[in-house]
Design brief:
Elements (H helix, E strand, L loop, with lengths): L1 H18 L4 E7 L18 H9 L1 E3 L2 E2 L5 H10 L22 H7 L3 E7 L20 E5 L8 E4 L2 E4 L4 H18 L4 E6 L23 H23 L6 E7 L20 H4 E2 L1 E4 L7 E3 L3 E2 L3 H9 L28 E5 L9 H13 L8 H4 L15 E7 L2 E8 L2 E8 L15 H22 L5
Parallel strand pairs: 1-8, 1-9, 2-12, 3-13, 4-5, 4-8
Antiparallel strand pairs: 2-11, 3-10, 5-6, 6-7, 9-11, 14-15, 15-16, 16-17
Helix pairs in contact: 5-6
Length: 462
């Protein structure tokens, strides 16, 4: 009899779980907004009422990092859960490898509707490319290859068009249309909304608008406030559609800000120091998150394993991940995590002139030409040069909170720096010569990580 009741209970639990609708996902990313460039993080004048409200209603991540100090690599880290070096997104403008397993592909296979709206910058926007959004897991996409601003040229599922208006408004309008369609169809959705604001040249409100008149970097902060307003439109739209309670909205920036004084630490965008990596981040999910702030260290590579874990979706590959799941953090504090590693200036970036590229695609399509810019279909994603430890260049760092080790190699010369971030958040006092044992321990961990990254970069994960 007892066995019967246990079996019945298991069936009832299984049925109850089946009736629980999986959360929807909306990933929102700013372009070049620093940690301190929000009202809730104490900026002296910038107004961000939407983000301020989200920080009170959700989980505010006080020590969140981008995986890279520039845009393309960080975007690759979100979709793969891996350091972008592994997937060959070595700097801005580099393409992700087609062999990577993306969040969008996994959500698509799990039955979610998937949509990408805004800046792509990790592949082509021509539909024939293996690394366009459509071939990386997105059912619908309205995408720019890089930064776009007023009256932009965008690729809608591979069809190039010009749109009238401001980039942030266009992105939110089409995101909400996509979400509304899925709500009407009673289908879970995974939506990526990647803004191009507040990236320069900051033409949206200046010079006519008087907001922040007389303040330094006025146009930059104007764009942050305007983007915040459109995030509010997105947030309100989700609420009006009746799905806000069971929708995870995760906001962050792709790298540090453009103003060193408010970016969040030493230096700014483009630097491995705190100002180039520390970014604002808030997760809002009424059904699943207890509102509060946390100082637990985390970064964009954590988004992949966290979201899969929350939704009960399994990976299909065994590619090494750099991120960890933060699912437990949604309800309680976590205490221990593996170190986080960063790497920049291994090689130079590649220019991507968005409007020029998409207009060229449009003009070719008008003439009946399928592939407008053949060189931008794949770039070098099929090439697997074999790097060795001697190939190391640039600046990397290993963060094992509160310790952060910097490893800088330039023209063969190696320089180490060690900082205690809790005591020295501006990384001003190098302790590498006094904390020798700690320096050696972290350097060993960093060197092991370098080896693992080169293994991936050389293509052995595939």
């Amino acid at each position: 009899m007892m066995k019967y009741f246990v079996s019945l209970l298991a069936i009832l639990i299984s049925c109850a779980q089946a009736d629980i609708k999986r959360p929807n996902i909306v990933l929102v990313m700013a372009d070049d907004q620093g940690w301190g460039d929000t009202g809730y993080n104490g900026h002296p004048f910038v107004q961000t009422p939407t983000l301020d409200a989200m920080s009170k209603a959700g989980l505010k991540l006080d020590r969140f990092y981008s995986a890279s100090p520039v845009c393309s690599p960080t975007r690759a880290s979100v979709l793969s859960g891996r350091n972008p070096m592994r997937s060959k997104v070595l700097n801005h403008g580099h393409y992700i490898r087609a062999e990577e397993e993306t969040l969008a592909e996994l959500y698509q296979k799990a039955g979610y509707a998937t949509g990408h709206f805004g800046k792509w910058h990790i592949g082509s926007v021509q539909k024939q490319s293996p690394v366009c959004p459509g071939n990386m897991g997105f059912d619908e996409w309205l995408t720019a290859p890089n930064f776009f601003d007023i009256d932009p040229w965008l690729s809608e599922k591979g069809q190039a068009k010009q749109f009238k208006g401001v980039s942030s408004e266009i992105v939110v309008e089409h995101s909400l249309k996509f979400i509304e369609k899925q709500v009407k169809a009673d289908k879970s959705f995974f939506t990526v909304v990647w803004f191009s604001a507040p990236h320069s040249p900051h033409k949206v409100l200046a010079p006519e608008n008087k907001l922040y008149e007389g303040k330094p970097s006025r146009a930059y902060f104007q764009e942050i406030t305007e983007m915040d307003r459109t995030i509010g439109v997105l947030r309100d739209g989700i609420k009006e559609l009746g799905v806000r309670d069971n929708t995870i909205v995760w906001f962050c920036s792709d790298n540090g800000g453009l103003v060193k004084e408010s970016s969040g630490g030493r230096e700014r965008k483009g630097s491995i120091y705190e100002g180039g990596l520390r970014v604002p981040s808030v997760i809002e999910w009424p059904n699943g998150i207890k509102p509060r702030s946390t100082s637990f260290p985390s970064f964009t590579s954590d988004m992949f394993p966290t979201l899969l874990d929350v939704c009960g979706i399994k990976r299909e590959t065994n590619h090494p991940l750099d991120g960890i799941t933060l699912k437990d953090l949604f309800q309680k504090e976590m205490s221990v995590r593996p170190g986080m590693a960063f790497w920049h200036h291994f090689t130079k970036g590649q220019s991507t002139f968005s409007d020029r590229i998409v207009k060229e695609i449009h003009d070719a399509q008008k003439k009946g030409v399928d592939i407008a810019i053949p060189v931008r279909i794949k770039k070098d994603i099929d090439q697997f040069p074999q790097y060795t430890k001697d190939s190391y260049e640039g600046h990397s760092a290993y963060l094992d909170w509160p310790w952060k080790l910097h490893y800088i190699k330039k023209k063969g010369a190696i320089h180490l720096e060690l900082y205690h971030l809790e005591n020295d958040p501006m990384e001003s006092k190098d302790l590498s010569m006094t904390q020798i044992e700690k320096t050696e321990t972290l350097n060993k961990k960093l060197q092991n990580w370098h080896t693992s990254v080169f293994h991936s970069l050389n293509g052995h994960d595939y």
